[in-house]
Amino acid sequence: MTKFISRKDLTLFISFTAIVLALPFLAAPFGAAYPDLLQRFMIFGIFAIGFNILFGLTGYLSFGHAAFFGVGSYAAMWSFKLLSTNAIPALIFAVIVAGIFALVIGFVSLRRSGIYFSILTLAFAQMSYNLAYSVLTPITNGETGLRMALSDPRVLDRMFFEVPAGTPVPSLFGATLSGWNGFFFSAVFLIATFFLAMRITNSPFGMMLKGIKSNQNRMNYTGFNTRPYTLTAFVISGMLAGLAGALLVVTDPLAGAERMRWTASGEVVLMTILGGVGTLVGPVIGAWVIKYFENIFSSFNNNILYNFWSFLPEGMQSTVVYISSKFVGEGWHLTLGLVFMLIVIFLPGGIMEGARRIGALLERISGRTRSRSELKPTAAE
Amino acid sequence: MFEVIFLQFLNGLDKGSAYALIALGLTLVFGTLGVVNFAHGALFMLGAFCAVLFRRILTLETVTIDPEKLSPWGQPLEIREPLVQAWFGEFGAVLVNYSVPISLLLAIPIMLVIGISMERGLIKHFYKRPHAEQILVTFGLAIVLQELIKAGFGPNPIPQPMPENLRGAADIGSWLGMQANVITYPWWRLVYFLFSAAVIGAVFCFLQFTTFGMVVRAGMADRETVGVLGIDIDRRFTIMFGIAAVVAGMAGVMYTPLLPPNYHIGMDFLVLSFVVVVVGGMGSLPGAVAAGFMLGILQSFASMTQVKAIFPGIDQIIIYLVAVVILLVRPRGLLGRRGVMEA
């Protein structure tokens, strides 16, 4: 019998948990320590980890992952409306629905690989998005978005106790999920997702997926039918996307179709690449960085810029402010696009690869022979 | 019934032309350089904004306040006169009126420069890297380009008027000896279709009947052998990339009166054009053109009320549905060559 979990993994997992739970304190110096933003960190961390299980391990680049995210949102919302305002049934329901959805789409899309797979998933996601806007309006409430109403049936709630007056909000067995409660609730799921991803990466199943990534033909020659493995990875990753979507609805009880647009799918690709494809922590870091800068950069305005560049001489200041104002606020996507391009061009392994290179450089400088910086897993090439 | 079908067929042509032009450029790039270019839609958008820019330049105007007359609101009347008109008189007015087609003259050199510098500056370094990385870097480039346009021109669509005497509709039915005013088709859409047919024809003739085109076709078939024969194939392919950019840009310029361009118009078309390329067959030029028109027309048929009554929402998904079926049944696409990206 092998040990349940290796020492290296245990250290990684414990430090990850500690960092996540300490985020309210750690993020304070960066001005990010408010529950709404941190909750988004958690949610998009889950989304990115889920995406990475597919893209990082098997190499299949899906351009339609936002569809599962959106389906999860809608499913959770319907559970709030029909069953109960309790978050647990909503999450379970959302994960199941997203899983079934992923099973169907994955079954079809995985018949092709490479660019064709990307386009198939993109096509399915766009179909879902267009349908959610047009014909499926009774289910999705079209452009307005789906939200909870006082008159919802909520069968389970009404069966067991008196329904309180006022607009219903998601809760957890009576405790509210707004503010810090919501953050810790999502944090638990992020940690669980991380653990799952870690176990998958190290399992024989994960090895199989990596084998598929490096050479699918050879895997076939050795007698493995690779499709069930890729399909499983696809479904797991779809379910995690659904979970993330459902958690977003718990935070912010409004499910809209724009979360299924291909730009949303592109965002999760950006997060994963930025952090580091195929690494465990990378996607989470990528998601955090993007969400953080999205939040900080888009709140910049000209006043802040004037203060920032105040050390410059008068005439130059306004020019510099004018130029830099194009990169923040509304234009923060420009910065994102540039950073993303630079990462793909110079550092395809993302932030994790950069950290590793810096680590290696420091080691070479200090002349140590034995490396102890192998805590973080290397990219699965 | 025949009239209705014929009308829908015509309605599909202009969208189909746009798809065909973009897909043609995508296929040229893929067939020559082997690069999957997600920034191609951004080139379409840049073309459209060449038209916007050109019109802005033409309509730079002087504002003089005439204190004698009053505007309907009781303010002194402002007289705006475009500089071009002040300098050239009647000819200036004609210039402003035909600003969209004339801006092609501006767009062609600009797009050629953009295309060639894009290939030399960025895409050149990605030939040897996996397709996924090519997709990602061009995707990033597309974001950057469209955000630059957004920073320069703002997020809202900017309507471009078409030339005055091309407004209104052509009575195509009466040309064909049918009842008058049954089948009418807007003039500009007709112009767009004819224009794109001409561009497509020109590209094919260029490839088929010039020495340059022959070398490029040879390079598409077997790059190494052409290189061994002492021909600088990289250079020709760079020029082909420039031509693809010009084709996309011209498609964008001429499309502006039909759809006011905004910064994400390119991406909206790109997603569809990729589907078109895949349906037509990766690397097949006739396939791209045929699939472009076919999907445009199919989309137009699917948005008929009679069809929508049977399959609700079919107009939203028809293109993707066709793509899914084609990819599963005939992975190399309608006219794709055997063995090209047939994974």
From TrEMBL, chain A:
The keyword Cell membrane applies. InterPro entries: ABC_transp_permease, LivM-like. Keywords: Cell membrane, Membrane, Transmembrane, Transmembrane helix. The chain crosses the membrane at residues 37-55, 86-108, 115-136, 180-200, 228-249, 269-293, 331-351. CDD domains: TM_PBP1_LivM_like (cd06581). Its main location: membrane. GO terms for molecular function: branched-chain amino acid transmembrane transporter activity. The keyword Membrane applies. It is found in: Cell membrane. It is a multi-pass membrane protein. It comes from the Bacteria. Pfam families: BPD_transp_2. GO terms for cellular component: plasma membrane. PANTHER family: ABC TRANSPORTER ATP-BINDING PROTEIN (PTHR30482:SF17), HIGH-AFFINITY BRANCHED-CHAIN AMINO ACID TRANSPORT SYSTEM PERMEASE (PTHR30482). This is Branched-chain amino acid ABC transporter permease.
Automatic annotation (TrEMBL), chain B:
It is a multi-pass membrane protein. One of its GO terms (cellular component) is plasma membrane. Keywords: Amino-acid transport, Cell membrane, Membrane, Transmembrane, Transmembrane helix, Transport. One of its GO terms (biological process) is amino acid transport. The chain crosses the membrane at residues 21-54, 91-114, 190-216, 237-258, 270-297, 309-329. It comes from Pelagibacterium lentulum. It is found in: Cell membrane. Belongs to the binding-protein-dependent transport system permease family. LivHM subfamily. GO terms for molecular function: transmembrane transporter activity. It holds the Pfam family BPD_transp_2. This is Branched-chain amino acid ABC transporter permease.
